[in-house]
Amino acid sequence: MAVRLLQPRFGRKSAYLSYIWRKFTTKFESIVYSEHGDPEKVLRLQKAETGKFGPSSVSLRMLAAPINPADINQIQGTYALKPSLPAVGGNEGVGEVTEVGSDVQSVRAGDQVVLRAEQCLGSWCRHLVVLEHQVLKIPSGLPVDAAATVSVNPCTAFRLLKDFEDLQPGDTVIQNGANSGVGQALIQIAAAWGIKTVNVIRNRTNVEDLKSHLKDQGANYVVIDEDLKSSEMKEIMKSIKPPKLALNCVGGKSSMSLFRFLGPKGTMVTYGGMSKQPVTVPTGSLIFQDVNVKGFWMSQWSIDHQKDASKATMMEEVCSMLLKGQLRAPPCTRHPLKDFKTAISEALQPYSKTKQLLILND
């Protein structure tokens, strides 16, 4: 069926074509799972319903969607948000609006939008029908890699830097897992705002290349876990202000080490737990440094703010940074939808250098 049917015009003919489209083409290729488990075993490519179209609906031709760790955890059944089964995989993604319902005001055909990832809409599909409040319009001109990955990691980094301490140019933030998607976005946003970053990573065979990559993104200092007690680290800490903010996505010993460098009355925020080990707070940090210990989950923030303008305002600022070159999309490996098994296999590999990106309508 011709693509132009996806872009209806006003008039009797277009109304008829739109009716035909919705009546006879309501199922499209999607990556589906009917049970939780190993993603390489439970995912399959099949046709699935796009959703019912109504006055508040927005019909999307999906363009691209990444494979994020949260998506994998959701399929495994270990993530806090669980869609009803069977479900289409994926939460983040970018699509082109092809049709809008009569009550829709904020978007129109031809616009590019991103899905609100906390809604569990299922982004790994060719076409999707959602409600108006489930998408956000983004500016034209963003490369597909940037548009598909803008709503989770960069927004998480944005909120971590905005919501816990009143950071000013010259202030310092320390983080572990600095090579993660959030970590790399945070390095770039902090650099644009004049905030210094001390970045902790795990040792690996290509660690010097990784250090150079992070410094190229704007990292002031990059150290491995084993160097946290070194003379080099002591010299780094002497040259900067004590960090007001420590950001933890690892847990265990790595998170405990961050407390050693956190300034008095500073804040430790945990937003991930890759080691699957608990966060242990040194007694001295609580008593003598009076530190704050908090948690953050981007999905919950989005749910709490879905009725105000803060999400859209944040998205505008983050997209502006991407367009100005202050923030770069993560390096991505593109996969057509039919090759999703390869994409999933690559996403499950440790120390992956790129994010796996599904191209949904190539």
Structural class: alpha/beta
Quantity of strands, as a count: 16
Low-pLDDT runs: 1-21
Assign an overall shape. Answer: globular
- How large, in whole angstroms, is the Cα Rg? 22 Å
The percent range for strand residues is 15-25%
Give the averaged pLDDT, no decimals: 91
Gap from first CA to last CA: 15 Å
Query: Major beta sheet, specifics?
Result: 7 strands, mixed
Helix content: 25-40%
**SSE order in H/E notation?**
HEHEEHEEEEEHHEHEHEHEHEHEHHEHE
Query: Helix count, per DSSP?
Result: 13
What does this structure look like?
The protein is α/β, with parallel strands linked by helices and 362 residues long. Helix content is 31%, strand content 22%. It has 13 helices and 16 strands. Strand 12, helix 9 (252-259) and strand 13 form a beta-alpha-beta unit. Helix 5 (153-163) packs across helix 6 (181-192). It is globular. The model is unreliable at 1-21 (pLDDT under 50).
In short:
The protein is α/β, with parallel strands linked by helices and 362 residues long.
Topology summary:
Layout (H helix, E strand, L loop, with lengths): L11 H13 L2 E7 L5 H4 L1 E6 L7 E10 L2 H8 L10 E2 L5 E7 L11 E4 L11 E5 L3 E4 L5 H5 L4 H11 L8 E4 L5 H12 L3 E6 L5 H10 L4 E4 L6 H8 L6 E4 L3 H8 L7 E4 L12 H5 L4 E4 L2 H7 L5 H15 L7 E5 L3 H8 L7 E5 L3
Parallel strand pairs: 9-10, 9-12, 10-11, 12-13, 13-14, 15-16
Antiparallel strand pairs: 1-2, 1-4, 3-5, 3-7, 3-16, 5-6, 6-8
Keywords:
single chain; 362 residues; alpha/beta; seven-stranded mixed β-sheet; six-stranded parallel β-sheet; 16 strands; enoyl-[acyl-carrier-protein] reductase (NADPH) activity; EC 1.3.1.104; lipid metabolism; fatty acid metabolism; lipid biosynthesis
